[in-house]
Description:
The protein is an all-alpha fold. It contains five helices and no strands. The protein has helices at residues 2-6, 13-17, 22-32, 41-44, 47-58. It starts with a helix and ends with a helix.
Amino acid sequence: MENWLNLLKYDPVEPLLKASDIAIQYFAKRDLLQLNEGGIEEIWVLKEPQNRKSTRIRN
Length: 59
């Protein structure tokens, strides 16, 4: 992980981990820190994905 971080002027990981959006926190931990934060199901049950899902079903 340190290779790509060295290319940046500041470390974006900390603000992403402190984001109010649970999905942003989840993907920062999973993709940037390679932490196993449980299944993606936790994200799909959030309000926003459910709203998109119901919109797609109606169309």
